[in-house]
Amino acid sequence: MKTSVHRRACSSCVLSLLLLVAQNAHARETENGTVIYEQDGLEVTVYGWDVQPGRILARGEVAKTPISYFCSGKQKSNPSSYNVSARYSAEHNDRRKLIGPSYEGFIRDKVYPGLIKLCGNIQITEITMPMYKMGEPKSWDIMTFNISDRGKSVTRSGYHPSVFAQASMSKEELAAMMPSAAPTSLPTRKGGKQIYKDSNLIIYAREEVWCHPKNFRSKVRPSSNAGLDIVVPVTYDELHNWLRKHYGRFDLKVIKPLADEACFPGSDISAKFYQDGEAAYLEEVRYGLKKSRSSLAQEQFAVLSRQAGPSREARLAVINKTKDIQDAWGVPCKGFFCALPGGAYFQAILAGDKVAVKKMDRMVDQRVGNWSTLGRGNSTPKNLRQDYSLLPAIADTYFYNYQQRFMLGCMNDGLVKKRYSYVNPTFEMPDYGDYAMPDMGGEVDTATYVLRPEFVSLCDKICDAYGGEFDRKIVKFIDMDAAQQTLNGVYKMSDLYQCSNDAVRLFEKNLIELTDEYMRNKTGWLP
Hints:
By secondary structure, the protein is α+β, with helices and mostly antiparallel strands. It has helices at residues 2-23, 67-72, 96-99, 103-119, 163-168, 171-177, 236-247, 250-262, 312-326, 343-350, 354-368, 391-406, 456-462, 469-478, 481-496, 502-520; strands at residues 29-30, 33-39, 42-46, 81-83, 85-88, 126-133, 141-148, 153-161, 193-197, 202-205, 228-232, 269-275, 283-291, 299-308, 416-423, 426-427, 440-441, 444-451. The longest helix is centred in the N-terminal third of the chain and has 22 residues, at 2-23.
């Protein structure tokens, strides 16, 4: 009997697989994946070969797997969440002419049916869609949609413009590009249970069980939607200052006592803040335990993450903070490297714009003052003033971090290992009574750089036994945000750009030439 049931089950499996193969027999494959929808100037694709655990090949290549693996959802922590990619031929701000009146309608009428046609009768509760301009390797923005009622109801739950979009557009252009606030349904607080109220706000539990129960033996578990809805009378821009004004540490004063009473120790808690009367939440915050900075053995209840809500105002507020960092030099920046913190300096190097570099160096030099005694490797007489430039600090930091950040992507560059050492001076210690004290000092500090061959000549002039730490300490000492953000941008560069990119190689060439020129004329660098 068991054998018969097993055979029938296997027959059903084979039939489902054959149907899936038949459905996909005419699916068009491109270098971007399997096409599930296309029209003139617009296509939507999925990757039928998502990464399987343990299937990463040499040089970061991915083992291709059948489309059935993608459709099964086995490669995802949330099997009902699917990723698609939309590519369009129009300019970014004209793509709506291809998409149609609304993104939600496009997902409902084109994308969702395309996924069902490809994969069969699968359950889809979420679709994430990064959007690319054809020919560009990086997505311009990413939208997330909640799907219900078998695709008949679609609501947008997230919108995230890429750092490249933020760098290439002004705040006004970004605001015009963004979709308006997502038409979400009213939060479940209307049917939820009120668990806290004071003169400032009200907190509702979205569900009866809103966190992992304190009784760990309980068979009731919170759903993925569980958490708190917090109703406040202010906008997103006012939210954080308003909470500090009325509560100080809101997480400790309000959320922690609620968690201590109802939740298993260490639970993560989702809380969405809503302005009273508004449907779109302002911000989602996850609270819970994290390691204390003061002691690795201690944990403290704190904010684990923050995510701006779906309203345009909330998204723009976050973007404005990012752009303030990118525009730290106070000059407009549009170009390849403008997505980096302090990007104007990197963009000036890329363009070989010596005038712009010197203009920003002048701003730093005014903060440093007379720094001739601080000049590492400086043979200039101390009665002559030496100009300060960020170029050596950027180059040294870039060179030292090449091995940790860029090297794995550029293993075929004939990399050279260089070790720089410094022997600390020795000095005699006076005898202590009848005890002869040993000499002190003589320690050897060493830093190893792994470099492209063209870096070596300059590195011999600026690199040291401390991996450039001295340069970074000067920048930290002068407490200038633009300079500090620019050094932060060196670390961020490898997260956003490929080491083999033509623009990155040109940046390296110009960085070497400009820094070398500065090192040859430190007293006459600034006009």
